[in-house]
Write a structure and sequence with these properties.
Strand order of the largest sheet: 11-10-9-8-12-6-13-16-15
Number of strands: 16
Radius of gyration: 22 Å
Distance between the termini: 36 Å
Order of helices and strands: HEEHEHEHEHHEEHEHEHEHEHEHEEEE
Shape: globular
Strand content: 15-25%
Largest sheet: 9 strands, mixed
Structural class: alpha/beta
Oligomer: single chain
Helix content: 25-40%
Amino acid sequence: MTDTDHMAHALVLAARGLGRSWPNPSVGCVIVQGTRVVGRGHTQPGGRPHAEIVALAQAGAAARGATAYVTLEPCAHHGQTGPCAEALIAAGVARVVTALTDPDPRVAGRGHTGLRAAGIAVTEGVLADSARTVAAGFLKRVTQGLPFVTLKLATTLDGRTATASGESRWITGPEARRMVHAMRLSHDAVLIGAGTAVADDPDLTAREIGAAHQPVRIVMDSTLRTPLTSRLARTAQDVPVWMIHSDKASPIAIAAWQQVGARMIHATDAPGAFHALADAGLTRILCEGGATLAASLLRAGLVDELALFTAGAAIGADGHPALGALGLTALKDAPRMALRDQHRVGVDMFSLWAVQ
């Protein structure tokens, strides 16, 4: 097998940790001795142990003289754990193959340099584009101070999300809904606006797929009008709830949400809110809000990709649109997207678009 084959294996492992490793990146590591895989691992929940440590523990003495395939440059700084670069050196690996250089200023090439200084052969850039896709949340948080945002929409063929009366259950079929639950698990958090929280009283947990963990549940609610009788409030002690509010929220409401166990985040606008979420460690956010929130995030340039589920139905102009007003006067100003993936999900169509 080639370097590309083994790195592809490591990337599959890295993807398994998405939604669970924040604030650390989800990294995959495969250790190969000759033609045999002797160790493999990915970043564990909460960000540690790191992938290399898991793989080295599995490999044991077989790591000596082996090649380690790592999706991100091994760390070179002392945090709550020792540097992975030093662990690889101590284990006696002969070669390290990586996909990406870590942009974290504490690493930024120091891991590669340290490995080479110890006499270890280093090959960089193997499947770099694929690795950037897996590590997109971490990379954006480190380089821009923002999380990677996926906007999820479920619409009819004519772009409607509900009838004129507000009925929306269910536009898409059960297979699409299960896929959304799986998407929640691969993100650190699920985000909605106050309108959705009030109108739908959602739970926002991943269900029906045997979830072992749950994403953080976030509501952008400037005045904190989400009822304290809501399912989110009643379950805040069990699954994290973060409330983003502005100066318009009363101290009484803030204290009440804190009392039920919610984390309170103050922000004056959407960019400020998302910078605060990144500062709190979040790297990947799935937005499942309504038309108003979706439009506001697109206007602010905060959306990285659009996950669109389209059902074979039509509601008409009297139905609720998927997007609120974008304030466009010229077509050239419309957000443009590039199609990355498209396939059927049950009776519906799924398409993934990268926002350009």
